[in-house]
C-alpha cells in the first residue's frame, strides 16, 4: 500500500478468474477473453461474447455489493482491533504485490499479462514409487490398454452420491476396456466389474506420473 511497508502475496488454485486479472492490473477484455467460468472457446461467437460480457458485469456487481462486504466483516471479526486500522478489503486486494496462479501458459488462451501475475502450474508436482499393489495394477500385464484414475478431490465424498448416479458411473466404467482406479472411501460396492478397482486412498501425484495413465476424471 502507498506509504506502507506491507507487502501482500495472493494465490489462485486454478486459472485466474476475471477479478484476479483486474487487481493485478492485467487487461481483462470480455469481448475476446473467455472467463474461466464460462467454458467458451478461444474464438467466441457474438452470442458467446455477449454472455461472457454479461457474466463479467454480474460477477463484478456481486463481488462489489455482496462478497467484499461479507469478507471485510469476517476479516475484522478475526483480526480484531489492530493499529493502524485495516483498510477496506478491496483496498488490500488492489495493492497485492504479486499473485501466484496455478496455470500454465502452454494450456492457457493467449492473453496480455502483467509481471505481477505469475503462473506456477505444476510447481508442487513430484513423482515417487508406487505401492506394490498399485504398481502391479498399472503394469502392462494387468492393464494393457491403460488406466483411468477417478478422484473427486478432498472436498467431495463419492460414497455420498445417490445410488442411481453411482450405478450409472459403474455402468459407464464397465463399458471401457481400460482399468479404472477409483478413490472410494465408503463401503465396498458389490458386484463390481473386474476392471474397476476401489481404493480408500490413492497417491495421486505418483499415479499421475505413470505412463499407463490415460485419463483422470475429477
UniProtKB/TrEMBL annotation:
Gene Ontology molecular functions: UDP-glycosyltransferase activity
Protein name, as recorded: 2-hydroxyacylsphingosine 1-beta-galactosyltransferase
Annotated SUPFAM superfamilies: UDP-Glycosyltransferase/glycogen phosphorylase (SSF53756)
The keyword RNA-binding is annotated on this UniProt entry: no
Domain of life per record: Eukaryota
Keywords: Glycosyltransferase, Transferase
Species of origin: Cacopsylla melanoneura
Family assignment from sequence similarity: Belongs to the UDP-glycosyltransferase family.
Amino acid at each position: 500500500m502507498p506509504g506502507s511497508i506491507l507487502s501482500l502475496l495472493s494465490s489462485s488454485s486454478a486459472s485466474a478468474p476475471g477479478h484476479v486479472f483486474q487487481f493485478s492490473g492485467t487487461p481483462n477484455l470480455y469481448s475476446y477473453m473467455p472467463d474461466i467460468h464460462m467454458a467458451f472457446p478461444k474464438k467466441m461467437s457474438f452470442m458467446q461474447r455477449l454472455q461472457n460480457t454479461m457474466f463479467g458485469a454480474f460477477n463484478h456487481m456481486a463481488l462489489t455489493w455482496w462478497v467484499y462486504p461479507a469478507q471485510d466483516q469476517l476479516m475484522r471479526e478475526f483480526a480484531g482491533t489492530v493499529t493502524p486500522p485495516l483498510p477496506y478489503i478491496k483496498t488490500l486486494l488492489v495493492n497485492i504485490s504479486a499473485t501466484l496462479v496455478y496455470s500454465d501458459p502452454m494450456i492457457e488462451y493467449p492473453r496480455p499479462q502483467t509481471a505481477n501475475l505469475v503462473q506456477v502450474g505444476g510447481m508442487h508436482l513430484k513423482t515417487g514409487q508406487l505401492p506394490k499393489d498399485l504398481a502391479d495394477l498399472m503394469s502392462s500385464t494387468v492393464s494393457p490398454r491403460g488406466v483411468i484414475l477417478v478422484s473427486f478431490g478432498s472436498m467431495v465424498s463419492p460414497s455420498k452420491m445417490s445410488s442411481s448416479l453411482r450405478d450409472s458411473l459403474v455402468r459407464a466404467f464397465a463399458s471401457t476396456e481400460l482399468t479404472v482406479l477409483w478413490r472410494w472411501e465408503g463401503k465396498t460396492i458389490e458386484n463390481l466389474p473386474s476392471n474397476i478397482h476401489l481404493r480408500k486412498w490413492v497417491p495421486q501425484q505418483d499415479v499421475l506420473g505413470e505412463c499407463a495413465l490415460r485419463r483422470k476424471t475429477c
